[in-house]
Amino acid sequence: MESWHLRRHEASHGSLKPVHALACLLGASQILWLPSITETALFGLAACCLVLAWAAVFHHRHWALAWWLVTGLLWALLHAHQQNQQQHPNPSQASLTVRVDSLPKTTPNKVSFIGTDPTSGRQYQFSHYANQALPHYQSGHWYQLEVNIKPPHGTANGVGFDREKWLFRHGIDGLASIKHSAPLPALNPTGQTINGWRQAWSERLDQAFIQPRVNALVQALTIGDKTHFSASDRNLFQQTGTAHLIAISGLHIGMVAWVGWLLGAWLYRLWPQPRITRPLLQVVLGLLLAAAYAALAGFTVATQRALVMLLVYGLMRLSRRPTWGWDVWSVSLLVVLLLDPMQVLDAGFWLSFTAVAILILAFAGQAANSNRWWVFTRMQFILLLGMLPLSLLLFTRINLLGPWVNLLMIPLMTFVLVPLLLLLLLLGSVWATFPGWLVTAIDWVSLQLLHCLDWFHQFDGWSVVWGVPHGWQFLLIVAGVLWLLLPRAVPQRAWGLLLLVLGLIRPPNAIPHGHLQAHFLDVGQALSVLIRTQNHNLLYDVGAAHDSGFNLADAVVIPYLQQQHIGQLDALVLSHRDNDHSGAANALLRQVPTDMVWGTEDHHQACVAGQRWQWDGVTFEFLSPLNLTPYLRNNSSCVLKISNASHSLLLPGDIEAPVEYRLTQQAPETINADVMLMPHHGSKTSSTDAFLDAVNPSWVINSSGAHNPFNHPAPTVVQRYTDRAMPILDTQQHGLLQWHSHPTPHTRSYRARHQRIWRAKKPE
Which residue has the higher pLDDT, 368 or 418? Predict the structure, then answer.
């Protein structure tokens, strides 16, 4: 009995250890891979938690590790299940009374914001399109909106920005297009909301800082609004490894807290109080200033994480107990997961906690009197090594230039620009206008920083693209990095370098001579197909580009080429001039060397019928058009047939019934193919009966966007294929689709192979 009480006492008073936080993190992170959630599984996990809790308390405290693991998983699954149940199931029209919950983002022909419908409790991302004057939406205000609503959706290629995951993680239950809006002033709050306050500041900053690049930088570092950056500047920060500097996060929040800490010490000297200790005053002022800055940034997820870590550190200091780095890290991690376990879906969550863990591991036991500049310099290169696995996993890139850029930019940002901006915020809170000298100083400093980044950006060869195609390679890289980061006293650390090299070795090309692969990228209501042979690569179309600066080359095509270790294209075929097929061509050609461009414009190599060549035992032949004048838009599409000894693929672009008729009459045997891309995304103007009979494909692949406004593929067209027992695989249901001719012809669906909770079919 005595021993039982002792075990119970030890279990109930055992200290929290980093391994417990890691176990909880491991459990919560399973939502990154699980395909779906069932209520039965939730009940089973809840029962398992109770059993493990009983075992940990009454038997042995080592069961606590399993309890943390299962509890982390259950907590994350409960949140994910709730979000999955909440999402809008089907396209519909509605009249909603909505409150604007975010800063409205305005572009020349669109304004967008996040808003909440209190009736259903759903949160939507609203977009209002107009060619003339757009309505001025105020954050925190109420509006009556007539909208078309679609379920959350996005492309799925395994590269680039995962929109579905982002919408799911941020609790956005649907996408709404506004047809008509009317303000409801009677419902507006009497006071100003945080986002309303931020919007007022944004408008003042717009008036003070005219230069667009400076304005974007100032908006990002004061109110946390990064939407003002151009696509080229976003790419600039990403390529130079300084994207973390334009996001109000731990670095900026920590600096503001440090200012509060110093202010507390100064105030205590001026006015000491027996009831308030100096550490208490420093902690309180530091947290208050940090919280105010985080509020101005909209309490973004990154600022919340930073505030939690500061709060944990401050409370530990006030408790006068030894404050170890791993204690702060562990407690902060658990608090963050407790508040919002869905943070494991954020790249920033992993980057921030991993970076802090690496610094704790590398500098634990570091002498307090060490040279600070040497420590700061060493820190940058340790982070380069330690963050290598995540950089490869998230960005498929090794930025060797990053440490050198950060050595200059972090001090300039932290000790020059950010203090000037904090002074601007302070003085702007007192006076209606900003001091001219301060605006001029910020403008000049910002431009110098941007010019420095422009100069660094010319050394783009320092940024190495390197994908990790296999999980076992990633594990080798992680093991190698951890081994190299161990203290110098640990022997045989050089073996970590061997593991790192083995993990970075690129696998050989698996396409035999005479075979091919076709990768139909999921680019929404557009088209892009990558054709690979043993030693050559051809891209058929490249998707759309939009006035906002967004284009599918940067968003999908180039990241996918990088993942496939393709640094150069042997040929680019632009089937015709429509934006959804060739709009992003210039963005692609600026970044990817291309030997030959086939197309329908004068500066292209003409893709007329009869052009034929062979690569690695695979034949490429254009079947249409007969000539390029006059240009007939869809019916001038380059029709490309690709064949090996046994199989063939037909890419007809957007041809319509007249060209289909000509091809069936002139050379019906040449258009016969095993795999066919559905003409014109499945439009009613294409896929005629005679054409389908002549091609007679075993697989039909269509490229279309989910819930697209054209209703592609048309039901009547789908019926024609169904009547002929021709299976249709569509990118809007399957995401990226691959067809391989080796070892036997087969297809692969990205969504089928990578089922995830945020892609699960929503309840209807």
Answer: 418
Ranges of each domain in the chain = 2-86, 92-191, 200-465, 471-504, 517-759
Per-position b or e across 525-563, b if 16+ CB within 10 A of its CB: bbbbbbbbbbebbbbbbbbbbeeebebbbbbbbbbbbbb
| 54 contact partners, CB below 8 Å, separation of at least 6 | none
Burial class (CB in 10 A: 0-12, 13-18, 19+), 367: exposed
| Percent of the chain residues topping a pLDDT of 90 | 53
Least confident of 113-122, 487-496, 653-662: 487-496
Is the CB of residue 700 less than 8 Å from the CB of residue 678? Answer: yes
- Asked if residue 277 has pLDDT above 90, the reply is no
Nearest 10 degrees: Cα torsion 454, 459, 461, 463: -50
Token code pair at residue 656:
């319509």
What digits encode the pLDDT tens for the residues 331-383? Answer: 889 999 999 999 999 988 998 899 888 988 887 766 555 677 888 888 888 99
3-state secondary structure of 675: strand
Which three-class secondary structure state does DSSP give residue 744? coil
Residue 314: Cβ within 10 Å count: 22
Residue 632 has pLDDT above 70, yes or no: yes
Tell me the range of 102-116, 275-289, 580-594 where mean pLDDT is highest.
580-594
- The number of angstroms, rounded, from the C-alpha of 194 to the middle of its chain's C-alpha atoms is 26
Kindly indicate the confidence band of residue 762, based on its pLDDT and cuts at 50, 70 and 90: low
Q: Do 347 and 238 meet the contact criterion of CB atoms below 8 Å apart?
A: no
Q: Characterize the bridge pairing of strands 122-129 and 174-183.
A: parallel
* β-strands 597-599, 605-606 pairing: parallel
| Residue showing tokens 């940058």 | 380
CATH of domain 92-191: 2.40.50.140
What's the CA angle centered on 128, arms 126 and 129, to 5 degrees?
A: 140
Reference 540, options 628, 625, 650; nearest CA is 650
Strand partners, 734: none
Residue-wise pLDDT for 655-681, tens only, equals 999 999 999 998 788 999 999 999 999
**Phi, psi (rounded to 5 degrees) for 731:** -65, -25
Cα–Cα dist 563/565, whole Å: 5
Could you report the per-residue pLDDT of 128-179, keeping only the tens digit for each? 998 777 888 999 899 999 999 999 999 999 988 899 999 999 999 999 999 9
* 594, 568 Cβ separation under 8 angstroms: yes
C-alpha distances in angstroms, 228 versus 114, 195, 224? 17, 16, 11
DSSP letters of 369-403?
TS-HHHHHHHHHHHHHHHTHHHHHHHHSEEETTHH
Residue 261 CA to residue 318 CA, distance in Å, equals 13
Cβ atoms within 10 A of the Cβ of 172, count?
A: 20
pTM over 0.85: yes
Checking if the pLDDT of 16 tops 70, the result is: no
Query: Residue 572 and residue 594: Cα distance in Å, rounded?
Result: 7
Cα–Cα distance between 217 and 432 in angstroms, integer?
Answer: 22
| In contact, 153 and 707? CB cutoff 8 Å | yes
> Range with the lowest mean pLDDT among 247-261, 403-417, 430-444, 686-700?
247-261
CATH annotation of 517-759: 3.60.15.10
Closest C-alpha to 472, from 446, 427, 507, 447: 507
Across the range 507-518, mean pLDDT stands at 88
**Residue 542 contacts residue 584 (beta carbons within 8 Å):** yes
- Sign of the dihedral through C-alpha 483, 488, 490, 494: positive
Q: How far apart are CA 375 and CA 402, in angstroms?
A: 17
